[in-house]
Design a protein that fits this description.
The structure is a homotetramer of 165-residue chains.
Chain A lengths: L1 E2 L24 H11 L2 H5 L3 E6 L2 E7 L13 H17 L6 E12 L7 E11 L3 E12 L2 E16 L3
Antiparallel strand pairs in A: 2-3, 3-5, 4-7, 5-6, 6-7
């Protein structure tokens, strides 16, 4: 098959040129992301926090706690994936039309090291935004005091669809 | 590159020939899986239950609840992935030596439909078990009364390592 | 994020209920696949042959030759992927509207064993067909006399788009 | 499961600090890569050229030709994957012991745009090198005159094993 993406070509917008939310307090895309995030029961249950929202890039953090562990005390891979998935999905949403919702088509993650420390930081970034599909990259880091370890890297495909009225 | 897996060849064991745990109550692999599962804080936090453990195949279920939702009320993709990851990892562990621990190297999941209903069932199965790496497939289903919808399919690579004494 | 696929729900067609091409010689989908396959320069260069086309399932085979090897004489992983990608893409195309073209959005493959022998057989099958996206599974086998080894397994996402007039 | 990679931790080497081959003409890792590449029948059949080899990073290029096309005249996705797979595998090999061989465990690629133009350039880079497994990222670009389009992005897992004497 030929690589896909043709239909995505015309509407690519740069994920790099955006001003940070802090200097654009009325950014409707960021407001939309924050409102949506607040409705995610799972993000609350996992104790996550939305720390950065700019066009094409979203960062989510969560405290590493025993209640989120796997059998050896490290953070469960599924929790890492959940945070990365939300970061990537919301990064995609920042570049979608105002009335869009975002769903995960698929994701793939390589886990680079067992996760321990104080805090997980999951960064999602748009690689290519299209009319229908958006490809994102995510990277997660375990933080402990001044140390930061790269613990996971993700590629994900998101789809936008019109919200139902 | 050549496809990998050569070193995995000699120790493949069949995932199909095993008797169910219920008819083999002293199966040490199943006992090991159950003990490990009980130590997973994340699985408890998500409300999961280990429903089947046989050689090469493990099933995990969890109730679909608002506290595990994404923004539109469906089950969060990360929760689906967490359940599938544990199911696949434990399926791999059933075929590993007694003193092995299992870690996720990587996973990829396609999400086939938004997840709603009463219960998510995540099934993990070994595709190929090797000396070092085990490849697993996972499939998740949303159940509601008599209906069962296929909501996700996963491929994952697990690695066994010796437990530290 | 929520798993995607909602929009795909209504148009799912069964990949299982189809009669084989041999008993339906006028099947327009199979004819379309065969015509498209014949235009793939890469499939000819790799020496592939389209061996089966039924609704939701396509099989492609190729001889294992030194000119397609990696450095140790095994079949190159990229060749395995190329065959699986075409098998999956055409499996998707069999369930798409008559004027559709198919493109690969993404694919992931686990390579289970080094590939040697006489022939590679790549089977692609639709897992879920939707209005826009189709998810496929592929499995490749190395054949040598009566022996058949499972050498790779794939998950792939395909997108249909209207052909340009 | 816990994310894997623990055993990989101690032997990580930086992919960034290496001098380019041109300033280290006797680099044995680069020589090893070039010798191995020359033995890949598939790379010759596809018309590829090894354009850069430094520690942790390898670049491969190939002319875009009708004999490598899919049905609409674009470069076949499998060819893109083959080039990226070799670039990633050899990037991994540059950081492995002298007597190691490299095999692909798995790979995942997102195809970002149909590939046309004069030349495909596939860049592979090590994300994390470990004692057993190495995680790589690959990016492919279609070049035409002064234009360069990002057409694919890959994550791949490679495994090193001792060469047989």
């Amino acid at each position: 098959m030929a690589p896909g993406g043709d239909r995505c070509r015309s509407s690519v917008r740069s994920a790099r040129s955006a001003a940070p939310v802090s200097s654009a307090p009325l950014d409707p895309a960021a407001a939309r992301v924050r409102a949506s995030f607040a409705r995610q029961g799972a993000m609350a249950t996992l104790g996550t926090e939305l720390t950065d929202v700019v066009a094409g890039r979203v960062v989510i953090a969560l405290p590493i706690e025993p209640r989120l562990s796997q059998q050896d005390g490290f953070l469960h891979a599924g929790v890492v994936v959940a945070a990365l998935d939300s970061a990537c999905g919301y990064a995609a949403l920042t570049l979608m039309p105002d009335d869009a919702e975002v769903l995960t088509v698929e994701l793939k993650v390589n886990l680079l090291a067992p996760v321990s420390g104080e805090r997980l930081v999951a960064e999602g970034e748009v690689v290519r935004a299209g009319g229908t599909l958006t490809v994102c990259r995510g990277d997660a880091y375990a933080e402990q005091a001044a140390e930061r370890v790269h613990v996971a890297t993700m590629l994900a495909t998101m789809v936008g669809r019109r919200a139902r009225p």
